[in-house]
Write a structure and sequence with these properties.
The protein has helices at residues 16-28, 40-49, 81-100; strands spanning 2-7, 10-15, 33-36, 58-62, 67-76, 104-115. It has 125 residues and is of the alpha+beta class.
């Protein structure tokens, strides 16, 4: 899906992928986010195309009042997960709206895992 903005001088189309890259970048810059969690589609794209998508872990859809962004994240160990989720929502909304001049209707955060650093991981014999 592309978002279309009619202007006097022509039409501006912003693809979902562009919005997703903006959202992914904002999410990754948020303290407490270890990485984005890509689903099966992202894994297949990486395997078949030989490159990783810049917007893995982000889904963009059109809502009635603007765009809806779903983000799938892996958070750092020992962070306050609700606080990190709220910060992601704020950063993503601000960045997408400032870069695209589009209204962000919702930013839904899905925590898919916790990243435990190697030195803190339990040792199994």
């Amino acid at each position: 899906m592309n978002v279309v903005n009619e202007q006097k001088s022509g039409t501006l189309k912003i693809s979902d992928e562009v919005i997703a890259v903006c959202a992914a970048n904002a999410a990754l810059k948020t303290d407490g986010v270890a990485e984005l969690a890509g689903g099966l589609t992202n894994a297949l794209s990486k395997n078949f195309l030989g490159k990783e998508l810049l917007y893995k872990g982000v889904k963009v859809s059109q809502g009635e009042a603007g765009v809806i962004i779903d983000i799938f994240v892996i958070v750092d160990y020992q962070v306050n997960i609700p606080a990190v989720a709220w910060n992601i929502q704020e950063h993503v909304k601000k960045e997408v709206e400032s870069m695209t001049e589009m209204t962000v209707e919702a930013v839904n955060i899905n925590v898919q895992g916790v990243h435990i650093p190697e030195e803190e991981a339990p040792i199994h014999d």
